[in-house]
Amino acid sequence: MAGPTQLTLVSHYGPKPPELERLIRGCNEILARGLGDGFEPYRVEQVHATIIGLEGRRDGDCIVNARSGCSVDPDALLAFVRGELPPLRVRIGGYRPGVDYGFTSRGQHPAERSFSVQGRMAVVIGWPEDRARPLDRLRRKFDERLGVRHKYHTSADAVDDDFFFVLGTVATRPAADLSEEIRAYLARSFVVVSVDRSTLRVVAYHDTRLPARSTRAFALDAAELTPERLLGFYPSAELE
Length: 240
What we know:
The radius of gyration is 18 Å and the shape is globular. The mean pLDDT is 95. It is of the alpha+beta class. Helices cover 27% and strands 30% of the residues. Helix 1 (18-35) runs antiparallel to helix 5.
């Protein structure tokens, strides 16, 4: 997974609220008990929820966004991140089969989507308590205002209000009963977390797992996070 430096905007990278850490460790214990060495958990500190990827390349004084191909002004990007991100409350877990919560995620009931294995990644997903899809709207706004396109906005009508994070990697897909055990644990052990300026980080990474040894994380108001510094993290288009 290692590669050139790229950037992303994430929430809850680093220390976690105690209730979120307990939830992560509880899921990990179930996976470890069921899969043994077939489950490789991330360190709790590196678990994070991606708000939107900022990947691209440097071309002069601009960033060419990897997904839209648009030129992005680093000054405008940093100003937007610092000034336009409304606080959210996200519920992780607490969804029970057969209950109508007024929404689905990719056509699936939230109880089913709350835990899954995607490829080799063990993934937990929560959703904003506001049913007006504020996270999806925020991701759309990045594209409309800046030309920064969300990974899962592959069409004009695509919707992604998911607050997802990876627990670790699995060598083999867990049996259905193990996945159901984790979903049942999430249903009864849910937490609500705040997503705001204090939890958000602009992250420069080489490895998508964001291990601490090769990752730089910046608070939104960090004085060292200037537009020039932001631009300098991107690989140059001339080197491709």
